[in-house]
Amino acid sequence: PAAVGEELLAVSDAGGYCAHTAVARAALEPPAAPEQRPLSRVETPGATTLEALTPFVDDVPPARMLKTLLYLALTGGGSQVVAALCRGDRFIDEGKLARALGASEVGLADPATIRATTGAEPGYAGPVGLPREVRVLGDHAIADVAGFVCGANADDAHLRDVWWGRDVDLPALADLDRVTDGDPAPDGGTLTLTPGIAVGHGGVLGTRFAAALGLTVAGADGVERPVWLGSFGLGVDRLAAALVEQHHDAAGIAWPTAVAPHTVAVVTVRADDATQAALSEQVLDDLAATKVDAVWDDRDVRPGVKFADAELIGFPWRITVGRDAAEGRVELTERATGSTTTVAASEAVRSVAEASVAAGVPAV
Hints:
Layout: E1 7-12, E2 18-20, E3 40-43, H1 50-53, E4 66-75, E5 78-87, H2 94-101, E6 105-108, H3 111-118, E7 135-139, E8 148-151, E9 157-162, E10 172-174, E11 191-196, E12 200-206, H4 208-213, E13 216-218, E14 224-226, E15 229-234, H5 236-246, E16 248-249, E17 252-253, E18 264-268, H6 274-289, E19 294-297, H7 303-313, E20 317-321, E21 329-334, E22 340-344, H8 345-358
Parallel strand pairs: 5-7, 7-10, 18-19, 18-20
Antiparallel strand pairs: 1-2, 1-11, 3-9, 4-5, 4-6, 8-9, 12-15, 13-14, 16-17, 20-21, 21-22
């Protein structure tokens, strides 16, 4: 997760579920089933929205109302009218709808198409009595809705007490639901939508390319079969961006030791001081002997500039060789916490080396 991320994630506060909103699902509770009554028609003048419909059927909760949205879907076979169904308290995710249909593009049908298909103005479509050529696809959650209200495919009218199997067949189902903040999560928590940076991408390619190339493998039964292919990629630049987003403060980057470009900066306070320079070189030699990657800042600039640059660049550790150099002592600063201690130079080298090993940094 990152505030500047271009992707949207659904994250559970229980910690057991996180998914891209393109595939995320909420754990919706089905509405209670009412007493079974005969289907009836209700006159609902001007009720083209859920809010306008509610006063006419005020004993029916939104979860027992059914939305029927007509789309035009572009597939390999051309343009097709599709009726997408979801609960009244939910919304259709058009990306999910397109994938479920295998469509390259989906868009809401225009009023003229809706009138030609349903015989009614927009806002009164329903699954009962749709023309056979209309492809009907419902979200999984509608299967648990009983005795629902839906459009009557007639102006200013809705149907109520509609039951699957009795009044209309349950259509094909797919995940069409658009998750929102506050939805119940599959792990028992509550979902929050948050932006994130995509750092990797995987996909199953199936057998299409293997079959075209004649790439096969013999199974246990000796029969040759096309190989299933997949792909996975990591964006190194995206990984770096994600790390910086998660590990920074007002002073700059705070690289974790495991992925830092350099583990430690050795900062010599006064480059013209022979004692400081000699101790700095000894520290650098000792770090090299322990296979720790180090940078030496011996520039002839003010100490504050060196410290600020070290924090900006984000070295996980800083060994400062200054006024205590004559006693063989240095300051050891951890970038992530800002804690600084004065220790013997050998102890500073040992601490940085141990931190590097613990983080799994490859020896240089």
